[in-house]
Amino acid sequence: MGSIGSTLWHSVKGFRNSPRGERLMGSIVAVKQRAPVIGGNFAVWGGMFSTFDCMFIGLRNKEDPWNSIWSGALTGSVLSARGGVGMAIRSGIIGGVLLALIEGMGIVMNRVFAEEYRPSNKTMQRQ
Question: What is the pTM assigned to this prediction?
Fold first, then answer.
């Protein structure tokens, strides 16, 4: 997923930043240089997040949104630990907040779409 998204992003970026006669080649060069890096970073983040998520499921013996939120916070902290304690704390907070927003939107969307398929009173009266 990271490689595909990065390929699309850098092909457009390389195309736009190249001179007129060199746009196709500039696009290809940009993809060859940056797409593997971004794809690798995405893979590391995803692997670490999944590891922490499974760890929390095993420790807590339940699957709920808190596992993802804590996994996002812990992943952000660990990946930025080389920048110092302050940076790790800030990145952990950002990771936790982002995952909380994602989980919250998922809960809202599930409730909205569940309402669509719930039978109404009129349907129940006909039967």
Answer: 0.75
